[in-house]
Amino acid sequence: MKLNRREAITLGLTGVGGLLLPFDSSHSALAETISDCSNCLRGEIAPASFQPEELSHQIPRFQSPFKRPPLLKPVRSYESGQRPLDCYEITMKKAQVEIIPGLKTEIWSYNGILPGPVIRQKGGFRDEDRGRESLVRFINQLGTSIEDGTEIPINTTVHLHGMASLPQYDGYAEDLICPGQFKDYFYPNDRAATIWYHDHTIDRTSRNVYMGLAGMYIVEDEEERQFNLPQGEYDVPLILQDLRLASDGSLIFNDRGQRSLYGDISLVNGVPWPCMKVARRKYRFRVLNASTSRTYDLVLSQKENRLTAGERMYVIGSDCGLLDAPVELTSPLQTLVIAPAERYEFVLDFSEYDLETDLYLRNPGLINSSNIDSDARVQTIMRFHIDRDEPDRSSLPDKLREIKRLDPNQAVATRKFRFERSSTQWLINNKPWNKNRVDANPQPGAIEIWELSNNGGWMHPVHIHFVDWQILDRNGRKPRAYERGWKDVFRVDHFETVRVIAEFGRRNGDYLQGRFMMHCHNLVHEDHSMMTQFEVGQNGPEPCSAPPLPISSITPL
Ligand code: C2O
Ligand code: CU
Hints:
Layout: H1 5-15, H2 28-34, E1 41-42, E2 44-45, H3 53-58, E3 76-78, E4 85-100, E5 103-110, E6 119-122, E7 133-141, E8 144-147, E9 150-153, E10 158-161, E11 181-187, E12 193-199, H4 205-210, E13 214-220, H5 222-226, E14 235-243, E15 265-268, E16 271-272, E17 275-280, E18 282-289, E19 296-301, E20 312-318, E21 321-330, E22 336-338, E23 343-349, E24 358-362, E25 380-389, E26 413-421, E27 426-428, E28 447-454, E29 460-464, E30 470-474, E31 489-492, E32 497-503, E33 506-507, E34 510-511, E35 514-520, H6 523-527, E36 531-536, E37 549-550
Parallel strand pairs: 4-7, 6-13, 14-18, 17-25, 26-28
Antiparallel strand pairs: 1-2, 3-4, 4-5, 7-11, 8-9, 10-12, 11-37, 12-13, 14-15, 15-16, 18-23, 19-22, 19-24, 20-21, 20-23, 24-25, 26-27, 28-32, 29-31, 29-35, 30-32, 33-34, 35-36
CU-O-CU linkage binds near residues 159, 341 and 519.
């Protein structure tokens, strides 16, 4: 598709509208967007003259068919024992994919696809849950890449974000799988939630995830089934990413001097601006923001380029599982803000519309926050086209899973963490990552309040590994209704203090101990070097105590 010159100019002007604004650090997302491109990396440094907008404008909007990432089947299952075990295998390798039809793009992938395959697993510890355990074998066949003119190995480590894994299976940033090695990760599947696996390599996470190393992992249980939510083909992953492609199809990694990375191509499940044909009935969507830095502000509209009133979205789940009741959001003003690494689940009821209606999932960036830039190209994400009637026996109950509120009066400690920028780095309490330093030591069983504060400039989506949290308040005010379930990522906006509470509790009768990471999930900030660690209890297993092995020693699962 070719745009006529007028359209191109219009879009181009909209796209760089930020240039007209003063360079002001309080509008840092804009500042980052318009800053120079001295750090462009695509294998090698990109020429200063490339036009990043060029390809984005040539991609057809809302025509490419919507795709679901394929489900990964276990290579072997063991049924004996309290909890049966399913074994999966994922090879990390370079692959050529057609993000844009007819043009090859090299990605670094899980099993050759973008995003990686979905793992769906039964979890829970009650008998009736019939919960299972997973072993996922990750094999690194990525080889090397050229960085600043030097050939370096593409090391990896895999974190299953949202799983309470033991420290040695949690994807510790320094527990590296080098090319030619593999590692078997064990996952307990504690509770039902939409979670995801992604790379977590020290200093390289932003590059590795951007190049394609991310995939969804769904844990289900029996309790959830009783709610009779839409299932099967009506239970749909929506993995959001933004990328930038050069005109030869190669991915451009430009973190703008280690500040943030924004793409001008918006993808859902690896497809730019797709169209999903849907039936007049309810669907459950599991949305994951797998973008490096971008926050989305989601709302439905009947129009591609503006908001219509009265379109409804029913939020039913957050990072760590179902909410206690659906939260209804009505356009144009009630939006669903989703920062990097957050997950939300919502039901859309297309029976509220006539056949042949189009609905757009939009990202108009209404909220006043950094990490949402003004790029018009990513202000509409996908289209739903209602093209048929189908029976619907699913329901949207008034009440979902009971959420036991943690009581702040029972907290035995309050810890403060400041997320800030020095002249050269991103820091937590003024310190960069140091694998030999531990910044908090909660005891097993303790309830604690952590105060996450931001003294301005950028929004930080803070992720704390291992435990599920509840947000108490933002600057003393209640969080949005859909933020009141269990979470593991918290938006900490300019001049905000977000208080979160957790119990470092038991799992299936046992207390888990050990060292786990906490970091900003703007992956560019994480890499440079807004990350620290805490230790639960003492003498837990060491994060590097289950080292990877050479591929030559692989025996079948
Ligand atoms: Cu999604 Cu520590 O990561
Ligand atoms: Cu940050």
